[in-house]
Amino acid sequence: MKLFSILRKPTFAIFLAGLTVFASCSQYETDEIEQENLSLEQLENIHLDIKSRYQIGNSLTQKTSSDNELSEIFNSKFEENLEVAQNQGVEYLFEANGLDSSLPSTIDWALNNIDNENFYEELLQREEIQSVEQAELIFSYLQTFIEYSNLSANAKSAYSKAARESGCGRAVVGTILTTAIFAGVTAATGGFGTAAAVGFLVAKGWNTYNVIAACSE
Prior knowledge:
Layout (H helix, E strand, L loop, with lengths): L9 H15 L15 H17 L8 H24 L1 H7 L6 H11 L5 H8 L5 H20 L6 H5 L5 H20 L5 H10 L6 H4 L5
């Protein structure tokens, strides 16, 4: 499985260009890995980096005009995408936006197995992860789910609720990721769509009242 399916949309060409440029600047060893999965050590280091960035959150983030544009696009698109996720499923929303529709179930699995000794090896058996950007998006999705569950007034147990095949929280977090990627591709200059989306997620730019209250009864 690949994270992104082939799209015919013009914005996807920009997104692919961003992946190529961003990979050359990455802190991780990614030479000649296009045809093979990342190593377990690389995968673990990327996850640790994402978790560390989530802990810092937006406390050290200086807002820029690009960040503001990204937030505006996210906020304008979020409710529309959430309606699709709630009515037709998160997998449908992913597929409609050119994302691998199997990823939500992979995250469901990850939330239930994150404490396993062989977690990263088992993750690679479920999902082919061939680039740093792909791994960053997967772990950003995972950490956003945990963060959202902890913040949501409805969530008494992040892990027990996260793996449900349906439910508002699952739809919300799937929508957060999808909309962040859309906003990153649309707003980012220089083709850095992935970097913009991940930066938005780890800085918790999605943490607004409307998002947190989306599952309120």
